[in-house]
Amino acid sequence: MRIHNAVRAMVAVVLLPIVSVSAANGQTNSPPIVTRNIPYTANPHPRQNFDLYLPPGNHQQPPTLILWIHGGAWMLGSKEWINVRYLINHGYAIASVDYRFSGDAAFPTQIQDCNTALNFLMAHAASYGIASNRCIIGGGSAGGNLALLLGLARNEKAFGADPSIKPLAILDFFGPTDLTRVVDETVRTNEHATAQDAVQRLLGGPVADHLDLARLASPINYVSHDSAPVLILHGDKDEMVPVVQSQRLHARLDEAGVKNELITVKGAGHDGPMFETPDIQDKVVSFLQDSPHSIR
């Protein structure tokens, strides 16, 4: 969800430069090709747009798209917040999506916007120089919640999902997975009040009064045997979104026989530089490359 101190930590992260790496490792140190503020719907709201980052150089085939969804408690944030910019250096394209906040409209508006963006990108893939049949969904915090919904709930008509679009993998960075329980599980400090406010704004009122909507907004309820592989990253000191939220998702994915991995980042809170260390970057890249599908 990410606000207050977590926002400041995230801003520090996204302002870091893309790491330059050697071509000898199959990567590039050239800057990406960036197109900003592309609308994904007619007569768009100011937040219904995305920035597209294309890897530089010549490619034998169009790059796989990573659709990234930023956090901010569903009520603030920016598409500049991208935890996985380094993946551009590994040959992936990134579309970082803005969406309407809970102050604009209650759920499911946010996931409907994300599906509209995904549908638009896949329909116009050739125009943007990306693969039309290969996409990965990712997000951080509240964006992790939306990324999981986007990737797992491919048959949810209320979300505007196109079931013919089948993501190759999902990257979930410390996202809430069960909104019926996240507030009660949050440490009772300022973070608890923040989580309660964020969830209430998203649902349009207290969870107890909107249980059906809270279940609809909970990615854990959409896990099935044919779900895409999921990589989960979560700090064990996270007081905003308790790590137990990711642990239960991990268990549910295991029960369903879905390829997944939970990386618990020791000593990390909610977001921050510890989620972009070289070791973490290597693990993210390895997960994508080891997918049962051809991701790149």
Beta-strand share of residues: 15-25%
Number of strands: 8
Described by strand count, sense and barrel closure, the largest sheet is: 8 strands, mixed
Number of helices: 9
Write the layout of secondary structure elements.
Blueprint: H1 5-14, E1 33-39, E2 49-54, E3 65-69, E4 93-97, H2 109-123, H3 125-128, E5 135-140, H4 142-152, E6 169-173, H5 182-185, H6 190-203, H7 211-216, E7 230-235, H8 243-256, E8 260-265, H9 278-289
Parallel strand pairs: 3-4, 3-5, 5-6, 6-7, 7-8
Antiparallel strand pairs: 1-2, 2-4
Helix pairs in contact: 2-4
Overview features:
8-stranded mixed beta sheet; globular; 8 strands; 296 residues; Rossmann fold
Write a structural description.
With 296 residues, this protein is an alpha/beta fold. The chain has one domain: Alpha/Beta hydrolase fold, catalytic domain (Rossmann fold), CATH 3.40.50.1820. The chain contains nine helices and eight strands. The chain has helices at 5-14, 109-123, 125-128, 142-152, 182-185, 190-203, 211-216, 243-256, 278-289, and strands spanning 33-39, 49-54, 65-69, 93-97, 135-140, 169-173, 230-235, 260-265. It has an eight-stranded mixed β-sheet with strand order 1-2-4-3-5-6-7-8, sandwiched between helices. Helix 2 crosses helix 4 (142-152).
In short:
With 296 residues, this protein is of the alpha/beta class. Helix content is 30%, strand content 16%.
